[in-house]
Amino acid sequence: MMGRKVGHRIGMLGLLVMMGGMVVTPSPLRAEKETASGHVASGTTLEEFQRRERTVSALLESYHRLQGSQGGASGANEQEILGLLEKAKSLVSAGQLNEGHAVLEDTYTRVRTAITKLQVANESKTAGNKDRGDIGKEKTAREYNHLHDSFRALQEARQRISHEKGLDPNAWTENSRVEAWEKEAASLAGQDRFAEAKNVLTQAYDLTRHAVHSLKSGTEEKYAPLRLPEENTENNRQKYAKRVRSMESLLATYGEIAQAKGRQEEAQTLIARVRAVMEKADASTSADHVNQGMMILDSAYLEIRKSLIELRKGDSPILEKMVWGDENSPKAQADFKKKMVSLRSLAEAHQRILAEKNRSSEGEAIQDQVQKEMATASSFVEQGQTAQGRMLLDQAYVRMRDAVEHLRQGETLVRSLNFASKEEEYLYEVDRNDSYLMLTQLLVANKSPEEVKRVEALIPESTRLRQQAESQAAAGEFAQSVTSMEQATEVLIRALRMAGIPIPG
Prior knowledge:
Elements lengths: L32 E2 L5 E2 L4 H24 L6 H18 L3 H29 L6 H33 L10 H16 L3 H24 L16 H27 L3 H23 L3 H22 L8 H5 L5 H27 L7 H19 L3 H23 L13 H23 L4 H26 L3 H21 L7
Antiparallel strand pairs: 1-2
């Protein structure tokens, strides 16, 4: 059976309480009620009502803080909301639980609307001075609100399906964590920190989404087991060799550009450090620990890529737009989001392994650091600096992945060369293609017009193949997408060689 990504599967027990304030237990007070969409959902318990009341109270506190930060005082909106909250409590006290819950849901909607209006009013005051960052924040606020609506819809679906299957929603051990995420997200949103709020809430959303999927499919495992890959396969060694060739090309590029900029000493130091890491990777591979060798190699690979980008800051390579495109394009944004999801899954795996080994306190520092890097990366994207945000996210990913590998001490790799699926192999080939795109951008810019033209003639073919690969991947045809992406990379390699640039292998 194909291995699966950590944190992306939750079984029966894992489905059972992610309602963020809507935990359901069997109760004689339960009754059927009609939802806004016309579906009949299970009734409400007193515990559910109390949990939702706490969520509304937290949002109300956020609203009050936001209003105060804008120099306002408690107004009609807040008084009306407080009145509804008291009405809901009174109905419950009178034994009208479902009616009280309906009023509470209306209260929830009103406080959300009030927060949004305050934010819009604040933005209107400064509309004349809006910069890109302000526009990005407004967009992120809308995305957060949309995500929260989707999250609540998933909560309702999870609740309904679990009861249809006769399952106890309280049986899921992650309940407190998801509740804490929702509360933290609401607090952050109330402070106008929507990027961070979205990151936090997405964790709860992803778990709930997979919970619903698992409920529907009848999966009873909480998490898919981590895959124990075979290391010494021919496929593993071929992939390792490809990465080494990419490293050699990057090092040659770095040395050439550093020399042209008069920074040879700096380059020699970096190249020596990277080669020392490569030697360690080779030693591990020679000892039949190919996966460990790849892990070691990847850390150096990221460092040299980052150094190359830093070295070329301020330059305007001829092929920059053609090769990289707009860093704030929908595709760049989508790639960033995919990487963020992968990093969150890895962070969850790290937390779970720590818990399994009773070493939770050891992981607090790196978890905090990575969470901050995720928030900072999102901020970069909001400000239109997607490339910088992606680089920071890549660093956090490597750091977290190495932490997982250290905990497992070689017993398991979250991502290895012996891929758990064709989808994972496709993602590897995307990364490899990105590397050669960067080489094209960096190297060809320094060549003669004739050599540049030879490369330009091949770039459209590589772009076509990459787009074909992306379309195949979007359709779930990952085996074909791997082949297409490899072909796209081979075209780039051929283009570089035609421009007189030696590419190993």
